[in-house]
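@here heads up, posting the sequence + SMILES for the pyridoxal-5'-phosphate run so it's all in one place. Ping me if the SMILES looks off, I pulled it from an old spreadsheet.
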Amino acid sequence: MDRIAELTYQFSLIESSIRDAEVAANRSPGSVHLLAVSKTKPASDLEVLVRLGQKRFGENYVQEAVDKIHALSEFDLEWHYIGHIQSNKTKIIATEFDWVHTVDREKIASRLNEARTGEPLNILIQVNVDLAETKSGIAPDNLKQLAEAIWALPNLRLRGLMSIPDPVSDDDLKRAHQKLKSLFNELKRCHPTPEIFDTLSMGMTNDLELAVIEGSTMVRIGTALFGARPPKDTV
Ligand SMILES: *Cc1c(COP(=O)(O)O)cnc(C)c1O
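bot reply: prediction finished. Complex structure tokens:
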């Protein structure tokens, strides 16, 4: 198969897995969005998906992402930053992206706020649900305080939560998803404008169905769409 046929096939498989999972979970059709995670993949791959109707792309490496954002600027796309945020990259992230999924510190939030102009930047707080020591993400106990700090920043719009649970057993994953969903519900109850707090970014290639059952509204899919990445880049 050539690359276009391969990407077209994989895209249709993922779209139908998402639709099937929505039905299995009694969720309304279209309530789960696909974020195509395109790190390490060339702009030509993304363009194939764009022509099939895909609008949301997730990237992890700032310079690589900016090159693709510029290469595809003729299309009306939504760019999501899902990588680790270094302080010295906040300005370029705030300028080039529409969404950031990985905010876990007040200092980063306030730097993004300072650099953003125009439409507010859509923010998700990354939560370390299973409290893995090696991982980024805020501890559940400190979540409310960070959310309150973000609510006070005029150029940021807090839209929801995200997590990257450790790839463990299905039972552990399920618990991690349920934990994120319950933190989400708690925070929504005290959000000053709850109607814009609408996004739960959870689920990747290996746990798409599980995440949709537990309430995900945005699954971040790389491998199942584009194929494997070089080993060092698997998250
Ligand atoms: C790379 C990455 C993904 C995609 O993972 P796959 O298993 O390839 O679907 C999702 N989320 C984040 C934060 C990533 O870094």
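MO: The pocket of pyridoxal-5'-phosphate is lined by residues 37, 39, 60, 82, 164, 204-206, 220-224, 235 (CB under 6 Å).
MO: One more: DSSP finds nine helices and eight strands in the chain.
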